[in-house]
Amino acid sequence: NETLLQRQIHLATKEHDTMAESLTDNDQNVLMYVCGYILKALKRKHYKDKKKANIVGSLTSNGQSSFVDQYRDFTKRADRGDGDRGLQHASDTFYFLVRAAELEVRKKMTGRLDQNTLLVEPLIEHLMCSFLVKHHWATLTANLCSEQLGLHLLEQIIRLFLKVRGFAIERKLQRQLQKENKRVKRKQKVGGKSMRKALKALDTNASV
């Protein structure tokens, strides 16, 4: 029989797979590139700490081909044969973790943005509590480290992800503000015309 955990994983994966259909191939190429950026940043940060460096190393691709290889185009171009100095190639599971984080952010960005949407700490907490993010991270770090160390590294990953993702959020907010400013100007313009018409009518009536 299917356990409760397996059922939760199945339902969460099904929901995210449905949401992932909205991602274009270009979106997924960018996400794979972001994965490479995150792994490269972590590798630089922890190269002196053997335990953390080993965990970061386990997040990279083992070289075996898989269906997510179709999204490595940007990463391969950016790597340019630099080997360990270039962007790192993420494992499938690490890619799915970052994709899960991306889909959670997209849900948060649906509709109008406000100052609460842009608060980083609540967003980090929200992503760290995401069922699929936690599931993928548990799969990646099983028997590799303590829960405390695992959470510490996951938080670093999410912060790096949001550092990159923040530019897109900022652009959306700018577009939203531009639309609102145009709407206000149109209302002011219409209001001005109405006022001029009223004054003209008043002037006409006064002269009659």
Please characterize this protein's 3D structure.
The protein has helices at 4-20, 25-46, 50-58, 73-79, 92-108, 120-128, 131-141, 147-207. By secondary structure, the chain is an all-alpha fold. The longest helix is centred in the last third of the chain and has 61 residues, at 147-207. The N and C termini lie far apart (90 Å). 23% of the residues are buried. The model is unreliable at 80-84 (pLDDT under 50).
Principal-axis shape equals elongated
Low-confidence stretches: 80-84
Radius of gyration: 24 Å
State the distance separating the first and last CA atoms: 90 Å
Give the helices and strands as they follow along the chain.
Answer: HHHHHHHH
Mean pLDDT: 79
Strand percentage lies at under 5%
Number of helices: 8
Record field, number of beta strands: 0
Residues in helices, as a percent range: over 70%
Structural class by helix and strand composition:
mainly alpha
| Biggest sheet record | none
Quick recap of the structure?
By secondary structure, the protein is mainly α. Helices cover 74% and strands 0% of the residues. The chain is built from 8 helices and no strands.
Give the SSE map.
Blueprint: H1 4-20, H2 25-46, H3 50-58, H4 73-79, H5 92-108, H6 120-128, H7 131-141, H8 147-207
Helix pairs in contact: 2-3, 2-4, 2-5, 2-8, 5-7, 6-8
